[in-house]
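Predict the 3D structure for this chain.
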Amino acid sequence: MPKPLTVPTLAEADAEYGSLSERYTALTNELAGISREAEELEADIRARRAPSIRPGVAELIGATVDLSLLERPKRLRELRQRAGDLEQAAEIIRRRRDDRLSAASLAACKATKAEYARRIGKFVDALQAAKAAYDAAEEVLDALEREGAQIGYMPPARSSFFAGAENGVTRYVSEAWGNSNV
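Done. Predicted structure below.
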């Protein structure tokens, strides 16, 4: 059984791409947390209204005011500002990471090129063996036809992929060699 194929991730193949991906993930995770906190705070503001009198007035009349209720709008503004900053930073990092995609892809392809070539080589060998077997079977039909036999009594299993000089096997093998895959 062949060993399982392992290819490097784009982050493993290119350290800069990996760093940008990590940074993007960290930014979007923080943004998700900030967004959840802002939604919860907005719901709390709608559910529990702030007192209608200022804390100083409440103190003078002997009432108590939950000061944390008064701080919520300020906190919500801070959260929204942070969310905006995170969105902008994440978009910049995403664009930088996308710009790095070609270099990371090239590095990943280079790292696996030898294994790919080895496997294509095995496939080419198998195709050539199949073509030789097909040609041997065709010799029987050709010999019968040369003798004038009606080969319709022996249903042929002809394939355009293997038949003729410009067949699929020849084209595939030529392409594999031409692309330096073998």
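The chain has a mean pLDDT of 88.
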